[in-house]
Design a protein that fits this description.
Helix 2 packs antiparallel against helix 3, helix 3 runs antiparallel to helix 4 and helix 4 runs antiparallel to helix 5. The longest helix has 28 residues. The protein has a single domain, classed as Four Helix Bundle (Hemerythrin (Met), subunit A). It has 5 helices and no strands. With 136 residues, the protein is mostly helical. Helices cover 87% and strands 0% of the residues. InterPro entries: FliS, FliS_sf. Its main location: cytoplasm. This is Flagellar secretion chaperone FliS. It is found in: Cytoplasm, Cytosol.
Amino acid sequence: MFTSVNARSANAYKKVSVEAGVTQADPHKLVEMLFEGLLANVGSARAALARGDVKAKCQNVVTAVRILEEGLKGALNVAEGGELAANLLRLYDYAILRLTQANVRNDDALLKEVIDVMMPIADGWKQMGEQVGLRH
Protein backbone atom coordinates (compact mmCIF):
# COMPACT_ATOMS: atom_id res chain seq x y z
CA MET A 1 0.00 0.00 0.00
CA PHE A 2 2.81 2.41 0.83
CA THR A 3 6.21 2.71 -0.77
CA SER A 4 9.35 3.20 1.24
CA VAL A 5 10.82 6.65 1.63
CA ASN A 6 13.85 5.54 -0.39
CA ALA A 7 11.68 4.35 -3.28
CA ARG A 8 9.65 7.58 -3.28
CA SER A 9 12.82 9.65 -3.13
CA ALA A 10 14.38 7.70 -5.98
CA ASN A 11 11.24 8.11 -8.10
CA ALA A 12 11.10 11.84 -7.36
CA TYR A 13 14.77 12.22 -8.27
CA LYS A 14 14.29 10.28 -11.50
CA LYS A 15 11.29 12.42 -12.46
CA VAL A 16 13.13 15.68 -11.76
CA SER A 17 16.21 14.41 -13.58
CA VAL A 18 14.19 13.46 -16.67
CA GLU A 19 12.27 16.74 -16.64
CA ALA A 20 15.52 18.70 -16.33
CA GLY A 21 17.05 16.68 -19.16
CA VAL A 22 14.08 17.40 -21.40
CA THR A 23 14.03 21.14 -20.72
CA GLN A 24 17.75 21.44 -21.39
CA ALA A 25 17.92 19.20 -24.46
CA ASP A 26 18.15 20.31 -28.06
CA PRO A 27 15.72 18.74 -30.57
CA HIS A 28 18.26 16.09 -31.60
CA LYS A 29 18.79 15.03 -27.99
CA LEU A 30 15.03 14.90 -27.41
CA VAL A 31 14.63 12.38 -30.24
CA GLU A 32 17.56 10.40 -28.83
CA MET A 33 15.79 10.35 -25.46
CA LEU A 34 12.60 9.12 -27.16
CA PHE A 35 14.52 6.24 -28.74
CA GLU A 36 16.08 5.39 -25.37
CA GLY A 37 12.66 5.42 -23.72
CA LEU A 38 11.17 3.29 -26.46
CA LEU A 39 13.88 0.64 -26.20
CA ALA A 40 13.82 0.69 -22.39
CA ASN A 41 10.06 0.19 -22.30
CA VAL A 42 10.12 -2.67 -24.80
CA GLY A 43 12.94 -4.27 -22.81
CA SER A 44 10.92 -3.84 -19.61
CA ALA A 45 7.88 -5.37 -21.33
CA ARG A 46 9.99 -8.41 -22.23
CA ALA A 47 11.20 -8.75 -18.65
CA ALA A 48 7.66 -8.40 -17.29
CA LEU A 49 6.40 -11.01 -19.74
CA ALA A 50 9.18 -13.41 -18.69
CA ARG A 51 8.19 -13.13 -15.04
CA GLY A 52 4.47 -13.37 -15.81
CA ASP A 53 3.62 -9.79 -14.83
CA VAL A 54 0.94 -9.09 -17.43
CA LYS A 55 0.00 -5.69 -15.97
CA ALA A 56 3.57 -4.36 -16.16
CA LYS A 57 3.98 -5.83 -19.65
CA CYS A 58 0.88 -4.01 -20.82
CA GLN A 59 1.92 -0.73 -19.20
CA ASN A 60 5.35 -0.86 -20.84
CA VAL A 61 3.92 -1.72 -24.26
CA VAL A 62 1.39 1.11 -24.02
CA THR A 63 4.17 3.55 -23.10
CA ALA A 64 6.30 2.32 -26.00
CA VAL A 65 3.39 2.78 -28.41
CA ARG A 66 2.79 6.30 -27.07
CA ILE A 67 6.47 7.16 -27.57
CA LEU A 68 6.20 6.00 -31.18
CA GLU A 69 2.84 7.70 -31.84
CA GLU A 70 3.20 10.95 -29.96
CA GLY A 71 6.96 11.39 -29.88
CA LEU A 72 8.79 9.86 -32.81
CA LYS A 73 5.99 10.08 -35.38
CA GLY A 74 5.10 13.53 -34.09
CA ALA A 75 8.67 14.70 -34.63
CA LEU A 76 8.66 13.72 -38.31
CA ASN A 77 8.20 16.39 -40.96
CA VAL A 78 6.92 14.26 -43.82
CA ALA A 79 6.35 17.28 -46.08
CA GLU A 80 10.00 18.35 -45.95
CA GLY A 81 11.62 15.05 -44.96
CA GLY A 82 10.94 13.34 -48.26
CA GLU A 83 11.52 9.64 -48.69
CA LEU A 84 13.47 9.26 -45.45
CA ALA A 85 10.64 10.69 -43.34
CA ALA A 86 8.07 8.61 -45.22
CA ASN A 87 10.13 5.45 -44.62
CA LEU A 88 10.50 6.25 -40.91
CA LEU A 89 6.75 6.83 -40.67
CA ARG A 90 6.11 3.40 -42.16
CA LEU A 91 8.70 1.83 -39.85
CA TYR A 92 7.12 3.43 -36.78
CA ASP A 93 3.67 2.22 -37.88
CA TYR A 94 5.09 -1.29 -38.34
CA ALA A 95 6.64 -1.19 -34.84
CA ILE A 96 3.29 -0.05 -33.39
CA LEU A 97 1.54 -2.94 -35.13
CA ARG A 98 4.07 -5.48 -33.88
CA LEU A 99 3.93 -4.10 -30.32
CA THR A 100 0.14 -4.35 -30.36
CA GLN A 101 0.30 -7.92 -31.64
CA ALA A 102 2.94 -8.79 -29.04
CA ASN A 103 0.77 -7.37 -26.29
CA VAL A 104 -2.33 -9.29 -27.36
CA ARG A 105 -0.47 -12.56 -27.95
CA ASN A 106 2.06 -12.28 -25.09
CA ASP A 107 4.70 -12.88 -27.76
CA ASP A 108 8.27 -12.19 -26.70
CA ALA A 109 9.58 -12.80 -30.23
CA LEU A 110 7.56 -9.83 -31.50
CA LEU A 111 8.88 -7.61 -28.71
CA LYS A 112 12.42 -8.67 -29.59
CA GLU A 113 11.69 -7.95 -33.25
CA VAL A 114 10.77 -4.36 -32.40
CA ILE A 115 14.03 -3.93 -30.49
CA ASP A 116 15.99 -5.49 -33.37
CA VAL A 117 14.33 -3.16 -35.89
CA MET A 118 14.55 0.03 -33.84
CA MET A 119 18.03 -0.40 -32.33
CA PRO A 120 19.95 0.40 -35.54
CA ILE A 121 17.82 3.52 -36.08
CA ALA A 122 18.41 4.65 -32.49
CA ASP A 123 22.15 3.95 -32.77
CA GLY A 124 22.36 5.80 -36.09
CA TRP A 125 20.56 8.80 -34.64
CA LYS A 126 22.92 8.88 -31.66
CA GLN A 127 26.02 8.55 -33.87
CA MET A 128 24.77 11.32 -36.13
CA GLY A 129 24.54 13.65 -33.14
CA GLU A 130 28.06 12.71 -32.05
CA GLN A 131 29.46 13.35 -35.54
CA VAL A 132 27.98 16.82 -35.84
CA GLY A 133 28.88 17.79 -32.30
CA LEU A 134 25.40 17.76 -30.75
CA ARG A 135 26.48 15.72 -27.71
CA HIS A 136 26.37 17.52 -24.40
